Amino acid sequence: MSTYVIGHKIPDSDSVCSPIALAYLKNKLGEDTVAAVQGDINPETAFILGKFGVAAPEVKTSFAGESVYLVDHSDLAQSPDDLKEATVLGIVDHHKLGDVTTSEPLECWIRPVGCTGTIVKEMFDANGVEVPQDIAGLLLCAILSDTVIFKSPTCTPKDKEAVEALAKIAGVEDVVALGIEMFNVKSAVAGTSIRDLVMRDYKDFNMGGNKIGVGQLEVVDLAIFDDIKADLLKDLSVLKEEGARHSVLLLLTDIMKEGSELLIASDDASIIEKAFDGKSADSKMWLDGVLSRKKQVVPFLEKVFA
């Protein structure tokens, strides 16, 4: 029976591309593994897979009785609902250690880098396995996406070193141009429902017993949201009530201006204001220099909700 390699719920590019790469590596090392995703892939990821000719993994949400590797997460809220009925063989992640626990020892590769793809590249090197051209392209794009083309404060020299090496293998001469092409695809909102936009890159967190949802939309120009911002705010409130959440937040991130407008639906907006030491107006707040949900948003929220 195959072991599944899975990223988090509501998959982004890293949580799709890195499991594909890790499954390839594990197979080369003699393990029968297959990548899977916990939901539909987003437009950016579809672009990446198409560009390098790689098929999308199967969508699978139940893993009871299966063996799994968790990629790009270690939080139960982002894992399959029946994870406790599965066997976790390993975790490969670049976030804080979450609340997933196991009954037996497991393989762990957790590093403070900008992307899980960087860690998977390290795993290829450590095991002496060559990265094929298509897999190199996927990992390259995952790193460009997660580090916002090196602009994110989460980006490290190791991420840049990995991109340099992967670009040579993938035959990509201008990685910045590729990154901009990806973010232009990511910026497209025409024809997409408001709920799909809110959930495009969304995660739930347990913070001090409160369920907090944080989504992010990264674009090259915030003006594309001008006509739909009110609808986004309205849907955040609906989503908050649907899931009995304390707060649902949506970061509208302008990668060119290097900042984010935070949309807020909360039982107590003053807590959110305290987290970022500012004041909101009409359920909105500008966060200058904020590009990373992982490093610049979630830790500050966890601190005030603790």
Mean pLDDT: 96
N/C terminus separation: 42 Å
> Which fold name fills CATH's third level, the topology of the largest domain?
inorganic pyrophosphatase (n-terminal core)
Helix content: 25-40%
The domain count comes to 2
CATH class bucket of the largest domain: Alpha Beta
Helix-strand makeup class: alpha/beta
How many beta-strand elements?
Answer: 11
Strand order of the largest sheet: 3-2-1-4-5-6
Instruction: Please tell me what the overall shape is.
Output: globular
What proportion strand? 15-25%
H/E series: EHEHEEEEHHHHHEEHEEHEHH
Integer-rounded radius of gyration:
19 Å
Low-confidence spans: pLDDT under 50, at least 5 residues? Answer: none
The CATH H-level superfamily of the largest domain is inorganic pyrophosphatase (n-terminal core)
Describe the largest sheet.
6 strands, parallel
Discrete helix count:
11
CATH architecture of the largest domain: Alpha-Beta Complex
Organism: Desulfoluna limicola
Cofactor: Mn(2+)
Catalytic activity: diphosphate + H2O = 2 phosphate + H(+)
Keywords: Hydrolase, Manganese, Metal-binding
